[in-house]
Amino acid sequence: MKTELRTSSALRLLGLARRAGAVAPGTEAVRQAIRAGEAELILMAEDASSVQMAKIRTTLHDRSIPQAVLGDRNTLGAAIGFAEVSAVAVTDRSLADRLVAELNEPADEPSTDAVEA
Known about the structure:
Layout: H1 2-19, E1 23-25, H2 27-35, E2 41-44, H3 50-60, E3 67-69, H4 73-79, E4 87-90, H5 93-103
Parallel strand pairs: 2-3
Antiparallel strand pairs: 1-4, 2-4
Helix pairs in contact: 1-5, 2-3
């Protein structure tokens, strides 16, 4: 399926961002990256708790940072070499832009992976 290929490609790009030192893994690290103005993209797990997501959304205030849901906590964590994470901020603009483009690639079927700003 094209959606699975898109997700797989996005997860590989996220792994590349991790190796480049351009990720902030976990809810608190994402919030710190937002406050520091370093977050270029926020990826959230589909099974993240509503409490964790509310913390991130509260930190965002009126900032316009792209956000997307990408896999579950296990998948998101595995992509960056962690056990489980609820959210990851990508801090490199170029890699964030590549991820956004990958997640917004037209698919043959509807998907929840689309990025929203």
